Amino acid sequence: MAIAVFFAEGFEEIEGLTVVDLTRRAGIETWMVSVSKDKEVTGSHGITAAMDKTLEEVDFQQVEMIVLPGGMPGTLNLGNCRVLTEQIKAFHEQKKYVAAICAAPTVLGKLGILRGEKACCYPGMEEQLEGALVGFEPCICSGHIITSRGMGTAIDFGLQIVALVKGEEEANKLAKAIVYQE
Q1: Is 139 noted as a catalytic residue in this protein?
Q2: Which of 36, 58, 71, 170 is most buried, with most CB under 10 Å away?
Q3: Annotated catalytic residue: which of 102, 120, 121, 139?
């Protein structure tokens, strides 16, 4: 099983790549997936990243978690990807993990999957978390949905994902190894 981090043109580089870095350090199989047919995706600050797969190549039966980095227009591009949004809805129905950071929780809000869940997002976008119980913590795990606020919370977000997949002890060991908030 793998974690799939989905990248669209205009993604926030730190948010996407931090998750990939931390999960791979923890020994979690992590796929960088382009939502387009191109295996190179350029972020909102002009950094181009090479992907492992395109959306067409993903077998969602092998995916245990969908992760959405924020950024603009990356978030809008993720939300406009019908194949991805259908998979997000299917994961939600199956109670499989869905994680989003910064502006990307608004994709979940628009899909209606935050209703009654505690969630957070980039400051000023809270109204787009339709039906959510809005919180302001760096990272919130509400059942099978993980949300985080922005670039400055990317390590918290990545460590929360590691904790859910490999356990709290593994996440704490990783935090210590990267000298995070000693």
Answers
A1: no
A2: 71
A3: 102
